User: Fold N5-carboxyaminoimidazole ribonucleotide synthase from Sediminicola luteus.
Amino acid sequence: MNYFSSDFKLGILGGGQLGKMMLYETRKFDIHTKVLDPSKEAPCKISCNEFQQGDLMDYDTVYNFGKNVDVLTIEIENINLDALEQLEEEGIKVYPPSQTLRTIQNKATQKLFYIDHNIPTAPFSRFAHTSEIEDSISNGGMEFPFVWKCTKFGYDGQGVKVVRSLKDLDGLPNVECIAEKMIPFKNELAVIVVRNPSGQVATYPVVEMEFHPEANQVEYVICPARIDEKVAEKANIIALKVSEKMKHIGVLAVEMFQTKDDQILVNEVAPRPHNSGHYSIEASYTNQFEQHIRAILDLPLGNTASKVAGIMVNLVGAEGHTGNVVYDNMEEILKMEGVTPHIYGKKQTRPFRKMGHVTIVNDDIAKARKIAEQVKGTIKVISE
Amino acid sequence: MNYFSSDFKLGILGGGQLGKMMLYETRKFDIHTKVLDPSKEAPCKISCNEFQQGDLMDYDTVYNFGKNVDVLTIEIENINLDALEQLEEEGIKVYPPSQTLRTIQNKATQKLFYIDHNIPTAPFSRFAHTSEIEDSISNGGMEFPFVWKCTKFGYDGQGVKVVRSLKDLDGLPNVECIAEKMIPFKNELAVIVVRNPSGQVATYPVVEMEFHPEANQVEYVICPARIDEKVAEKANIIALKVSEKMKHIGVLAVEMFQTKDDQILVNEVAPRPHNSGHYSIEASYTNQFEQHIRAILDLPLGNTASKVAGIMVNLVGAEGHTGNVVYDNMEEILKMEGVTPHIYGKKQTRPFRKMGHVTIVNDDIAKARKIAEQVKGTIKVISE
Assistant:
């Protein structure tokens, strides 16, 4: 099929910031795109060829949207999978396949998948309802602390809570969930794997998520990770195994923990371009969005190596600010070396909302790290 | 002014491939854009916030378009300048200023500008009509060979002809023109200078246009130029002088000849992102389009250095092909290392039409040069 002709149509489910960054690449290759998103203010609304407002969880909406495209991809996992399955049966190329998404959409299913395929992951228990956890504790089947995770619709840290005592269970929704053993880890790592339908596979260098020492929140994504080469190799092998078993097509971000004794445990995966790969726009030979497009169109994959070291800082809404967004001190960070801000185009800020990110690139990773800290301390996402 | 708010509007005159690449950057910074172009199939039609179809040479169209924006820029020089002057008087920020464009729009005026400011350029004569050249030759005032250039609307090699004998004058339009001494040169070089209203100035590394040994057509733009450091320094100083005297704002591409005896002569300039800077998208810390946006918004300029060596190959329509475009062997070039195609989105090809470009980046410029040759020999822009 000639992707570079106007006869070809690529459908994208979801029109948020990931889709927006994907569209830079479809524009570069002049690929005709059609986007479905529930919001009429979706960042993807411009830059795509056709935009449709609609519910991503609604069977008919997704089915009707998808049946008129040649290849269908996603930028968010919460999609009506029955519609995707039907589209696959009718010959539409859905990448990642519905099967991959089904494994991932439910966190319990995802964890069981790792167990079934002998992929190292933190021990966990599955509960049909949160209320059952208390029984398990009194029976000695569970110990504090653990991480409670809602199995469905967990996205961007919603539906996750560290439980240190019975009291912490108060107020949690009484839904299907998992309770995962809390693993003290040295580092949180991620590897982006890319795979095309012809079977070509490649991995990006291991990245490191550096946490704020007090807030326990990811502050920086650093590429390459400042870890031992053997640990990086281990992480790479495990990510490749996850990719192989999941039979995904496109980009797959594999998030992992490096434990105190240098074990690698898989935390969770995202079968799409991911926050941990945003650095690649400025730092890599082929960024994750172009790579995803290459993969789902079954084009040859690009070079995943880096030109320079890259660090990403998320721009999230400051606490105490809700309303029309203002990027305070933007000009100050533009003065700093190798700094590129990405503004997602959401008009309203609220505390911790992802509003954009900033990439810092430099030949010298230590310099980049210092500049990243200055960026973090300078720009503020506030309201008018 | 807060550029990163929806109250701000950036107007772009012209909606071709340069505008299209500029829009990647306005999207990245979430800057509200409005584009004017005569074609309803302009590559910029999507990705801008507002598109208007209209004549760029019509006073009323340009004036009415411009009076509703805060900053107005161009991606093509042939614009109604009286409208721009009026807009400037009314307080619209027009970058580059109409004065810069007035100097450039007429090639005789541009050449005289170089003479007036003691900027080295090839000797030339100005003629009100092409027919006057013959008299000048018979009077001994002109010698073959020379380069005939129409003073107006010269763009992309149209309106330029090498004249080796009287016969070559046949068929040329009888218009205002210049006849320029043909300078045997070693290299054609270019330097991109960027300047913001606050007076911050920066230059990109000198690039080299490598010509096809027989066809006398630019085949590759190579950054950095493979020339002596002293020559590069000289080119840089002259480009800075042109920039200073022209009082442009934004990006200015200064094209120069390196003569056999290592003199630098200014050929011509373009006060906008330019073909000679396309390599910067993949190779530079700050690409020329982002840099242009930073400059015209009076933001701090970005780093102009390169991360890696970059080579650009233009994708022009193959001879003998007119009609719906096909990019033959696209998949083959995507297999090559560090290769990024840019497809401008013009649906129809014709011989020598600029349809896209390909960038090749590599740590090693010699390797990049080899791959560029493979790219050039592989991809073909043909019709269906």
